[in-house]
Amino acid sequence: MKKMLVIDDNIEFRNMISDYFSEFGFEVIQAENGEIGLETARKISPDIIFLDVMMPDKSGIEVLRELQTDENTVNIPVMVITGTYFEKTMNDLFLQESNCRGFISKATDISAIQKKVEEIIPRK
Q: Residue 52 is part of a domain; what is its CATH number?
C-alpha cells in the first residue's frame, strides 16, 4: 500500500484528501504542522507528501528544505498546496527545490489532484 503524508494545518482539507485517496488504496497519514510532518516523514518514508505553504510553526518552504537535508527524506516527491493566491515568484521559489513536483491550489478539483498524483507515482 502506498503511503501519503498530508502536512497542513487545515483539518478539513486533510480529512478530504485522506477520505478521497484512502479509497484509491493509499494509507494517508496526517500532520497538523510542519514539525510533526517532518518527524512523520522521517518515520514512515511516504511515497508522496502534500505540503501546505502557510502554517503557523514552519512555512512550507522551510519544511521542503529540511526534507532535502535528510538522506531519508530527500527523494520523497512533494506536492505543494495553497489555499491562497500565490504569485509566480512563489511558485518558482518552490519549484527550484529538487523534491518539489508541483504547486497546486486547494481549490483545484480533487480529480485533477488525483491525476497529478498518478503522474508522480503511477498506479500498478
A: 3.40.50.2300
